[in-house]
UniProtKB/TrEMBL annotation:
Domain Ribosome maturation factor RimM PRC barrel: 107-168
Biological process (GO), any one: rRNA processing
Nucleus among keywords: no
Listed name of the protein: Ribosome maturation factor RimM
Source organism superkingdom: Bacteria
Residue runs in coiled coils: none
Phylogenetic lineage: Bacteria, Pseudomonadati, Aquificota, Aquificia, Aquificales
Keyword annotations of the record: Chaperone, Cytoplasm, Ribosome biogenesis, rRNA processing
GO cellular component: cytoplasm; ribosome
Gene: rimM
Length: 173
């Protein structure tokens, strides 16, 4: 049984989009680059209000842009894989593979200040939400979301604790 304080130490690394093939593989919307997934040996699945359920990773391979095909030990037929569709995939923070220079993970954005290029503060990032076509930065003021696209989001500076966004966004907040 997991202790309550350990739950906060988990980060979402993907979501099961569908089963893949007949041998129990899963198509996953990957929130980490495919190269990082290949270093992962154990993942945790969770549905809303459900417990974290551990699975050993048997194999991972790149699929389409932004997705991987994941094979778990003990999930060997399509029907078993289909039971996991819609579940989120987590890792304990300490098990997240190291990132490269000038890279970041979405969970690291939480708590950062959102500032326009002219210095106008819009609020803090309270989460990153998966939209239909792109991810959205959730801002604590509750006035909306900022699409995480290069046209609107510029530099992310983890050391300064700032996400720089296009100056046009100050009119919306």
């Amino acid at each position: 049984m997991m202790k309550e304080h350990e739950v906060d130490q988990f980060v979402i690394i993907g979501r099961v989009k569908d089963s893949f093939g007949l041998k129990g593989e899963l198509k996953v919307d990957a929130y980490l680059p495919a190269s990082r997934w290949k270093k992962i040996q154990k993942v945790f699945f969770k549905r809303k209000n459900g417990p974290y359920v551990p699975f050993e990773v048997e194999k991972v391979r790149s699929h389409n842009r932004g997705s991987v095909v994941l094979k778990l030990k003990g999930i060997d037929i399509k029907e078993e894989a289909e039971k996991l569709v819609g579940a989120y995939i987590y890792l304990p923070r300490g098990m997240v593979p190291p990132k490269g220079k000038d890279e970041f993970y979405f969970f690291e954005l939480e708590g950062l200040q959102v500032v326009t290029t002219s210095g106008h503060r819009l609020g803090k990032v309270t989460g990153v939400i998966e939209g239909r076509s792109y991810f959205l930065l959730e801002i604590d003021r509750g006035r909306g979301y900022i699409p995480f696209v290069k046209e609107l989001v510029g530099d992310v500076n983890l050391e300064e604790g700032i996400v720089y966004v296009d100056d046009r966004l100050k009119e919306l907040f």
